[in-house]
Amino acid sequence: MLINNAIGHFKTITYHKYMVAKMCFRVGLFKQGLLHDMSKYMPIEFFNGVRYYAQGKKSPNNVEREVKGYSAAWLHHKGRNRHHFEYWLDYSVSRKEKHLVGFKIPKKYMAEMFIDRVCAGKVYNGANFKRKNVYEYYQNGIGKYLLHPDSRRYLEYLMKMYAVKGEAYTLRYIKKDLKNNISKYE
């Protein structure tokens, strides 16, 4: 069973990484495409991924969280990967605000975040994946409350564009936006 989990988990994360790399290359993010999620192969993430593997139907991090109340693999992952909004959370620099806030995320990481969400949806939903799923999944999470307002607007703009106009259109927009900085959200 454990060897099957190891093989299955390795295939799932490698396929996801391959899909993200292909999309990143399409928008000109070559380095990010190559380096995306490399920490998933580190022992803390990989072995927990094997232990909590769910046959590629959902994230092992979610399973670990359900079992233990937290995910050690996720805590490691989000602290090393700038395409996750959690990487950009910190204490406010304002003396008036004494809580965690989301700092503005550079656009190249926002693009990778969007691509990561699309590819994760495709991997975990398979043939049932629909473009609208990306935004729906986001709506059910807590990210929208923690993202910097500009970062939130940009991510939502991309997800809505993707749902309505499709993948090719959205990736062309991102590529042009990264090259020319045309976005009204930065």
Task: Name a few traits of the molecule.
mainly alpha; 186 residues
3D structure, described in words:
By secondary structure, the protein is mainly alpha-helical. It is 64% helix and 3% strand. Strands 1-2 form a two-stranded antiparallel sheet. Helix 3 packs antiparallel against helix 5 (72-78), helix 7 (132-139) runs antiparallel to helix 9 and helix 9 packs antiparallel against helix 10.
What is the averaged pLDDT score?
93
Helical/strand content category? mainly alpha
The total of helices stands at 10
- How would the global form be characterised? globular
What is the straight-line distance between the termini? 48 Å
* Uncertain residue ranges: none
Major sheet size, sense and barrel closure = 2 strands, antiparallel
Write down how many β-strands occur, each being a DSSP E stretch of 2 or more residues: 2
Tell me the strand percentage band: under 5%
**H-E order:** HHHHHEEHHHHH
The order of strands across the largest sheet is: 1-2
Specify Rg, calculated over alpha carbons. Answer: 17 Å
Write the topology of this structure:
Elements (H helix, E strand, L loop, with lengths): L1 H26 L2 H6 L7 H9 L8 H9 L3 H7 L10 E3 L8 E3 L4 H19 L6 H8 L3 H4 L2 H17 L1 H14 L6
Antiparallel strand pairs: 1-2
Helix pairs in contact: 1-3, 1-6, 3-5, 6-9, 7-9, 9-10
